[in-house]
Design a protein that fits this description.
single chain; 531 residues; 18 strands; seven-stranded mixed β-sheet; FAD/NAD(P)-binding domain; 31% helix; alpha/beta; Guanine Nucleotide Dissociation Inhibitor, domain 1; globular
Length: 531
């Protein structure tokens, strides 16, 4: 089984800025003490430059009057969103011979497939790796001449001790847990390796009864058969980080597909990445797209169907309004924004979209002058720290060991109630400091703070679509139905966070649009000539 689709998160309203220089040991008086550490020297103040919350909220949420249109452009298809899905749609449409315009609210492409860099170490701000290197993904990489690398293995922390490649029998046998816990780990692993009713992504229009039952079952319910606290705790951390919710909130359908590719190369389940995560992949997708077709720092806010196709309004960084007239549109942003973007969206579709949940997420990158985790450890899962984070990625593990800098990335899914906190410079800075302190024991304890020179953070206010119980058999499909000349592409077409699904949905939307445009053009031409 190797159909794992992983996509950690995607952004729209809460754009990702790199916050630098948050000293450890600085917290407000109302924060709970976590780990006492030596405070680092003060660093430059945080900055939210580039985060256009006011414009986004005023246009999309507050229904304020927009400025008058200042200029107009035309194309065959307008694509909204330059994440992996929108890029894949735009690339495909261009290959099919259709003139496209790509509209993106950020100043760069990639969505969540973007990275930062520190002392020669590129690190992923969002999405990290893929497991599928066939079909369109292979085609994209081959066309661009880009080669991914295998990720090292993951580790699990038990009693402050990391256990590398922890699904191997020899490693399970060495764990300081009961025989029944070890047996449960082995049985869970073997069941995934021998699964007979394999989940399908992208989602079919309707699930079979067997798959619908998995979609309707929470992960906790699914795990009850193993009677293992260790397994519950491990999968809960994984579910929060990779599936958008706890084991009570996400479905067994997604778990079986996703975790089936987490068992490691020992079971012929490789994962692939690039230095800095998947930004190189996003750049590879974008390479054939003409630069003049890419419109960045343009916030889309009014998409309507017309007799001839669609009209889209967007506002640029100078608050000037551009109107785009096209024969069709591909919307490759998350569905929560769609009812604000498309004013006359059908009520039933709006209702389906309202049932899709998006969890906020943050990543906190500790920039160190020495090695704090073994070079062989790619992702370290830490149970019991979910208040602050679930796992610590080691981007340094795929760059040469003699590199002068090291980066360790804390992945911190947040509760829904903390979404607004990620848009607050002060609250986010305070959380980031406390999360970094909570991670220090895993990174070597108190002395680790001596090595950390900077902390870079990225906040996503509406990032990870949750693979909710019951979301895969009707809700996701209805939310992503085409609406006249408007088509939808995003990983949330599957109500699950996956780069592979994002790319596939982008390609599928482009192919549907191409047929739609050709058919519409033929019908119009036939009518005009009276044939």
């Amino acid at each position: 089984m190797n159909s794992r689709r992983r996509f950690l998160q995607t952004i729209l309203l809460a754009t990702g800025a790199t916050f630098a220089g948050m000293p450890l040991g600085c917290r407000n008086d109302q924060s709970k003490p976590v780990v006492q550490t030596r405070a680092l020297p003060p660093r430059p103040a945080l900055s939210t430059a580039g985060q256009r919350f006011r414009e986004m909220h005023s246009i999309l949420l507050d229904n304020s009057d927009s400025p008058l249109v200042s200029r107009t452009r035309s194309c065959d298809v307008v694509v909204i969103g330059a994440g992996p899905s929108g890029l894949a749609a735009c690339r495909t449409l261009n290959k099919l011979g259709l003139h496209t315009l790509l509209v993106e609210s950020e100043s760069r492409l990639g969505g969540a497939a973007v990275n930062g860099e520190w002392k020669g170490v590129p690190y992923p701000l969002g999405s990290v790796y893929v497991v599928e290197l066939d079909g369109v993904i292979k085609e994209i990489l081959d066309d661009a001449g880009v080669k991914p690398v295998l990720t090292p293995e993951d580790a699990i922390v038990i009693d402050n001790q990391p256990y590398l490649d922890f699904w191997k029998d020899s490693v399970i046998a060495s764990m300081p847990v009961s025989t029944s816990e070890k047996d449960a780990m082995r049985q869970f692993r073997d069941d995934l390796l021998n699964i007979k009713t394999e989940p399908i992504y992208p989602l079919p229009p309707k699930l079979s009864p067997e798959l619908a039952a998995l979609d309707g079952q929470s992960v906790r319910q699914y795990l009850q058969q193993y009677n293992s606290d260790l397994l519950n705790n491990l999968i809960n951390a994984y579910a929060l980080s990779s599936m958008g919710g706890t084991i009570d909130q996400v479905n067994a359908y997604c778990l079986i597909d996703f975790y089936g590719s987490e068992l490691g190369t020992s079971y012929n389940l490789p994962r692939y990445t690039f230095p800095g995560g998947l930004h190189q992949f996003a750049e590879a997708v974008a390479r054939p797209i003409p630069v003049e077709s890419q419109l960045y720092e343009h916030i889309a806010f009014d998409l309507t169907n017309t007799a001839d196709g669609v009209n889209l309004k967007c506002i640029d960084s100078d608050n000037q309004v551009l109107e785009i007239k096209a024969k069709a549109a591909v919307v490759a942003v998350q569905k929560f924004a769609v009812p604000f973007l498309i004013p006359n969206l059908p009520t039933a579709q709006k209702d389906a979209i309202k049932q899709i949940i998006y969890n906020p997420f943050a990543t906190i990158h500790l920039c160190s002058n020495r090695e704090l985790l073994p070079h062989t450890h790619f992702d370290t899962w830490v149970m019991g720290k979910e208040e602050f984070f679930t796992d610590i990625l080691n981007p340094s593990s795929i760059v040469p060991r003699d590199n002068p800098g090291y980066v360790y990335s804390i992945y911190a899914p947040r509760p829904l109630k903390e979404r607004s906190a990620l848009m607050s410079e002060e609250l986010f800075a305070d959380f980031a400091r406390r999360a970094a302190e909570a991670a220090l024991p895993v990174l070597g304890g108190k002395d680790a703070s001596d090595a950390i020179e900077e902390i870079h953070c990225w906040a996503w206010g509406h990032s990870v679509v949750r693979a909710s119980v019951g979301s895969h058999n009707g809700i996701a499909q209805h939310a992503s139905m085409p609406f006249d000349n408007i088509f939808f592409a995003n990983t949330d077409n599957d109500a699950s966070p996956s780069l592979e699904s994002a790319v596939h949905h982008g390609v599928m939307a482009a192919e549907l649009v191409e047929k739609h445009v050709r058919k519409t053009r033929k019908t119009r031409d036939t009518g005009e000539t009276g044939q």
